[in-house]
Design a protein that fits this description.
The longest helix is centred in the last third of the chain and has 54 residues. The relative contact order is 0.17. This protein has nine helices and no strands. By secondary structure, the chain is mostly helical.
Length: 207
C-alpha cells in the first residue's frame, strides 16, 4: 500500500485523506440516521396517553423534545397546542425544517468528497504525464519499459480517486434518499398529532 502511494506521487495523500474522512462520515451518518433513533415507535400514542391523563406538562414536553428528532419536532407543536390548528401546524413545520436540516448534516461534505476525489486523481495523472514527458525529453523513447512504468504511475491516482469517489457517491445518494423518506414519515406523524390534539381523531394506533 505504501509503495502504491509513493508511486502515485504526493497527490495520493489528499486522496487517502478524502477516503478516511468519507469513511468517518458514512459511519457517523449510518448511526445518526437509524430510524429507531429518529422516530421512536409509538411516540404519538404516548403523547396522547399523557394528554388524556393530564400529565402533558412542560416537564413532559421537554423530555419528549430531548428524546429524539421527531420528539423535538412534535414538542414544538405541543408547546402551541392551546392555539389554533393553523398555529400548531406552522410551529410543527418550522421545527420540522430545522430537524431535517440537522439530519442532512455532513451530506454536503460527502457529496463534495465524491466530486473532488476523481478530480484529484485526474490532476495526479496529468502531473504524472507531464513528468513522464520530461523524462522522454531527457532519455528519449528507446526504453518501452520506462514509458509503461511512467504511464502506470500516472494512472494510479485516477484509479485511487475513482476508488474513493464511487462508494462515497453511493453512500451520499443512499443517505439523501433516507432523509427524504424520514422527512415524509415525520410530516405524517406531525399531522396525526394535530388531529388527535384537536379532537379530530382518537384512534392514534401504534406507529
Amino acid at each position: 500500500m505504501l509503495e502504491l502511494m509513493q508511486a502515485g506521487g504526493w497527490l495520493m495523500w489528499p486522496i487517502v485523506a478524502c477516503s478516511v474522512f468519507a469513511t468517518a462520515l458514512v459511519i457517523e451518518r449510518a448511526l445518526a440516521l437509524r430510524r429507531a433513533r429518529i422516530m421512536p415507535k409509538g411516540l404519538v400514542t404516548r403523547i396522547w396517553q399523557l394528554h388524556r391523563a393530564g400529565k402533558l406538562n412542560a416537564e413532559a414536553i421537554e423530555e419528549i423534545r430531548e428524546g429524539s428528532p421527531l420528539g423535538r419536532m412534535l414538542a414544538s407543536g405541543l408547546a402551541n397546542r392551546n392555539h389554533s390548528r393553523e398555529v400548531m401546524k406552522e410551529a410543527l413545520g418550522d421545527a420540522g425544517r430545522h430537524v431535517v436540516a440537522d439530519l442532512e448534516r455532513y451530506l454536503n461534505a460527502l457529496g463534495t468528497i465524491a466530486a473532488v476525489s476523481p478530480l484529484l486523481g485526474l490532476l495526479g495523472t496529468v502531473v504524472g504525464m507531464i513528468n513522464m514527458f520530461s523524462v522522454i525529453m531527457t532519455a528519449g523513447v528507446g526504453n518501452p519499459a520506462l514509458l509503461a512504468g511512467g504511464i502506470s504511475t500516472a494512472l494510479l491516482t485516477t484509479a485511487a480517486g475513482l476508488f474513493v469517489a464511487i462508494p462515497t457517491l453511493l453512500a451520499h445518494r443512499f443517505f439523501e434518499g433516507k432523509v427524504d423518506r424520514v422527512a415524509i414519515e415525520m410530516e405524517a406523524q406531525a399531522l396525526r398529532l394535530v388531529e388527535v390534539m384537536k379532537g379530530e381523531r382518537e384512534d392514534v394506533g401504534e406507529s
